[in-house]
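Session log. Operator J.P. requested a structure for one protein chain; no other inputs attached. Running the standard single-chain path with token output.
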Amino acid sequence: MSQTLEDELERRHVCVTEKIALSGDTVQLLKPRSADALISEDDFVRDERLPYWADLWPSSRVLAEELGRESGGGASCLELGCGLGLVTIAALRAGYTVTATDYYADALDFTRANAIRAAGRAPATRLVNWRALPDDLGTFDRVVAADVLYEREYGPLVAGVIARVLSPYGVATVADPGRIAAEVFVRAAESLGLRIARAPEHLFEEGAITQRIRLFELHRVAC
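Structure written below.
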């Protein structure tokens, strides 16, 4: 199945493989060679959609390392904005039962292919628009997202999604490198009955890239 899916992706895109360190191991992620080549004028005109999913962002790497230290024990995990699948791979390897979601169908395909490559199995996947969350998405013990607060409107949107899908005693983690909607997200989450239990900061340095990435950990107020 993995090879068939990879073959299909390579027919649709010019692909490369990127080696990424993860929890003392190396995973090989299949990805489009150029995210810019995926930009669709029609998509942008309709809802300013850009293919950010096709790049591997530092926040994803930091969040994946954190998940790699957990023990899922079969608990349910939802990723918001799975992109190329690195965080989903870490969650699968940690023993979570994962549902990966994204706004782009191609992101779901790359996530499935990369998860089979690196974790030996594919997650469940759903095409999800945060503005119109599926009624049957359900609730999850663990909710994770990396670098999803890059537009101001995404602060309340992401907070609203987490408030909808986080189980009563669940834990959510949002990795953020200081995007424009981060503080809006915190205020919106608190107004929806979520609390920031902690927000440790991690320094990411690689080549010319230096980012300070905060991991916002959220629980329900009653918990």
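Operator note: The helical segments are 2-12, 41-47, 58-68, 86-93, 105-119, 154-165, 182-191.
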